[in-house]
Design goal:
about 180 residues; alpha+beta; four-stranded antiparallel sheet; 6 strands; elongated; ribosomal large subunit binding; RRF_sf
Length: about 180
């Protein structure tokens, strides 16, 4: 019983960290990265479809994303979706492929993005703390139901706290890496 509470909390924390990393991947750092387009959906025959299911996305140069649609008739729809997105990058099409040239970031924009990374990381830490709270509540319920002893509860609480501390350290590490990536010219 006690191990399942810690394992469940650990799994949920891992999922939160993975989600945070995906969010960090969508914050552009002046370099081309295919994950920038993960959130883009295209209206394809009336159905919103993820861009990566409609086209191949490659990075031929450090600051260029090349989008090669599997179906050439959808190029206009992809361009419209890219223009409507929050990327702020104008697509350049030659009829067969679409190029996205990622502009170099200004110092001011880099600092804004670093603040955004910190804010996103804080959201991740809040999620981790909520998972810890849920696990602690589960442990206390088990103790009240006489499934575990008071000593086992104390040990379980220490284990949950250790898992929480490890998750927060991992978030801090990912945050520092992303900030360094953003602030490096």
């Amino acid at each position: 019983m006690t191990n399942t509470i810690v394992t469940t909390a650990q799994d949920r924390m891992k999922n939160s960290i993975d989600s945070l990393q995906r969010e960090f991947g969508s914050i552009r750092a002046g370099r081309a990265n295919a994950s920038l387009l993960d959130r883009i959906t295209v209206d394809y025959y009336g159905a919103p479809t993820p861009l990566n299911q409609l086209a191949g996305i490659s990075v031929p140069e450090a600051r260029v994303l090349l989008i090669t649609p599997f179906d050439k008739t959808v190029i206009k729809d992809i361009e419209a979706a890219l223009n409507a997105s929050d990327l702020g990058i104008n697509p350049q099409s030659d009829g067969n492929v679409i190029r996205l040239v990622i502009p170099a970031l200004t110092e001011e924009r880099r600092k804004e993005l670093a603040k955004e990374v910190k804010k996103t990381a804080e959201g991740g830490k809040v999620a981790i703390r909520n998972i810890r709270k849920d696990a602690m509540n589960d442990a206390k319920k088990s103790e009240k139901a006489k499934e575990i002893t008071e000593d086992e509860l104390k040990t379980l609480e220490k284990d949950i706290q250790k898992v929480t501390d490890d998750a927060v350290k991992e978030i801090d590490q990912h945050t520092a890496n992303k900030e360094e990536e953003l602030l490096t010219v």
